[in-house]
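Reminder to self: tokens first, then the designed residues, so the page reads top to bottom the way the pipeline ran.
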């Protein structure tokens, strides 16, 4: 798989999670497939116009069993996105349910038009 890289510090494979991005009237929704990641192992960082999502899944080795082939295992998910200026960064919400992370990035309130007063000089 081309999206898997070993993380240098821990030796876990790093995976770019499958992601869907949907635009709705109220904002953008990002859905990320992150099976095995708990809320405690999930980190979402917002810095300026960039949001970074990382999470770690850990599966304990079975006692007294010999693993012959492993595709399920410890892993680290990572994905970063650049946000548009129309996203209201102060109202971003995240929900993790059944191995799927949902990020809601609401659109900023549109600037209200206003009349310009004309001064007599």
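Designed residues (121 positions):
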């Amino acid at each position: 798989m081309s999206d898997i890289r070993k993380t240098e510090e821990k030796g876990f494979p790093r995976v770019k999670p499958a992601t869907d991005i949907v635009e709705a009237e109220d904002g953008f929704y990002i859905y990320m497939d992150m099976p095995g990641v708990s809320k405690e192992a999930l980190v979402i960082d917002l810095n300026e116009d960039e949001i970074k999502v990382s999470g770690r899944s850990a599966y304990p080795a079975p006692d007294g069993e010999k693993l012959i082939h492993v595709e399920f295992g410890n892993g680290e998910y990572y994905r970063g996105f650049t946000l548009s200026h129309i996203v209201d960064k102060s109202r971003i919400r995240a929900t993790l349910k059944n191995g799927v992370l949902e990020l809601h990035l609401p659109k900023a309130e549109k600037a209200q038009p206003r009349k310009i007063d004309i001064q007599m000089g």
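Confidence is low (pLDDT under 50) at residues 1-9.
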